[in-house]
Amino acid sequence: MGSGGTGEAGSGLGAAVRRRRRTLDLTLAAVAERSGLSVPFLSQIENERARPSMRSLQRVADALETTAVDLLAAADARTRPVDVVRADEPAGLEPASGVRPLVRGFHDLHALEFTGTHEADREFVHPGGELMYVADGAVEVEAEGKTLRLGPGDTVYLAGGVRHRWRTVGQGARVVLVAVGDR
């Protein structure tokens, strides 16, 4: 396995969460109140004793006025001109979350692979464009007042600023999202 960055002092997803919380001068209790998560769970995340689901990480990110993608990027912010992310590398998230970063660190783009079920319980809007590719299964994307159904091999491009949400339809979906970086 390649380096995921969690073995070094001050690196890893927990350290990224802690750095962001301290930058905002927030206590764990304040983040717990904002996110609806417990102080012990947040402490376990920061101390690398628990891996959050993507949903929990998004709640933490909202509480910290950032995005889950930026927290994942900050977990291993080393810039590599060439970087291979192996399929079996730990992502810093709960293994059952079905989300895997495909690019580490801060770059001009972000890429995530989603497998399994994803609910349309959250609206997204990004300053840069986003491309969604459906490798397997089916998804529905709500954007610009329309619901688009995508199947295997289909893609949709969403320009920056377009509010959208998406969900899987049925079982066995695998979706790749690539977005222009927010930096």
TrEMBL record:
Q: Does the keyword Nucleus apply?
A: no
The protein depicted here goes by the name XRE family transcriptional regulator
Extract the SUPFAM superfamilies matched here.
Answer: lambda repressor-like DNA-binding domains, RmlC-like cupins
What keywords does the record list, in alphabetical order? DNA-binding
Pfam families tied to this protein: Cupin_2 (PF07883), HTH_3 (PF01381)
- Superkingdom of the organism of origin: Bacteria
Keyword Transcription: yes or no? no
Name all HTH cro/C1-type domain ranges.
Answer: 17-71
| InterPro entries for the chain | Cro/C1-type_HTH, Cupin_2, Lambda_DNA-bd_dom_sf, RmlC-like_jellyroll, RmlC_Cupin_sf, TransReg_Diox_bact_type
UniProt-listed Gene3D superfamilies: Jelly Rolls, lambda repressor-like DNA-binding domains
Source species: Streptomyces olivaceus
